[in-house]
Structure formats: C-alpha cells, structure tokens
Specification:
Elements lengths: L1 H15 L17 H4 L4 H10 L1 H4 L14 H15 L10 H16 L6 H6 L7 H17 L4
Helix pairs in contact: 3-8, 6-8
C-alpha cells in the first residue's frame, strides 16, 4: 500500500512539471517605469534592483528551483502578490494619490525592516540591506513622497 501511495505521489510530481506558470520577465524598462517620472539616484536604483525588483517589478530573476513545481507556482504567486502591492515598473502610471501613498509605504516598510522579507533574504543574501543602505532608500522614499503633489 505504501509503495502505491509513493508511486502515485511521484506520478503527480512528474505531471506537475508540465504545468508551469508564466515568467515575469521583460526585456527592458517600460514607459511606466518609476525612473521615467520620478528621478531615482543611481545608488538607490541599484539597491532597489538588488533587493526589491524580483517581487516588485516586471522583471524577476528566477532561481533554479523556480523550474521545479510546486515551488514555481509558489514563487509566481509571491511575485504576483508583490506586484499587486507595489510595481516599480508601473509606478509612473499610478495616479498622484496612489503614488504618494506607495512612496510612504516604501518608507515605512523599509524603515521598519519589513522589506525585503526575511524569507527572501534567507535565500538571497545579496538582498540584505545594511543600515546605511536602509537609510539611503528611506531618505529617497521620504523625498519622493514629499515631491508628489496630490491635486
């Protein structure tokens, strides 16, 4: 009986490999990228790309395990959820009220060290931010929030 259950589970895992989620990959920054409307200093841009863009942009760099289901499904859902909350690739299309709110949320989330997620930095140590890097991002986000005017 145990052998039959294990064979069935193995078959399910093999079949699952044929059902892959769409990849979140774009060739270049689009017309709604945050930098098209709101200047992002090069040092802050590099930090955002290193620590945030995998989940909060239209261009994810996938680890090897994204090719194995169900891990790929979990990652796809995680990325889609991140983009629902904040998408730097679409930020310029946000209305002023939403953009100002999102800038404030960036400030709060990074300042409180809720972002990047601990589960992400565990697998991506390059995304860990030093106190100085946290200050750079929060200062930029605070400045961005102040510069966005809501009619």
């Amino acid at each position: 009986m145990l052998k039959k259950i294990l064979l069935l589970l193995l078959a399910l895992v093999v079949v699952a490999q044929f059902f892959r989620p769409a990849k979140n990959v774009s060739a270049a920054a689009g017309p709604n990228d945050i930098a098209t409307k709101h200047p992002v200093p090069a040092n802050v841009s590099a930090l955002l790309k290193r620590a945030c863009y995998d989940c909060h942009s239209n261009n994810t760099k996938y680890p090897w395990y994204a090719e194995v289901q169900p891990a790929g499904w979990w990652l796809a859902e995680h990325v889609n959820d991140g983009k629902r909350h904040l998408n730097f690739s679409e930020f310029a299309a946000y209305n002023p009220k939403r953009a100002k709110t999102k800038a404030g949320e960036i400030l709060d989330e990074v300042e409180e060290q809720k972002m990047p997620l601990k589960s992400y930095t565990w697998m991506h140590p390059e995304a860990r931010l030093t106190p100085e890097e946290l200050k750079l991002i929060t200062a930029w986000a605070e400045d961005l929030e102040a510069k966005i005017t809501v009619p």
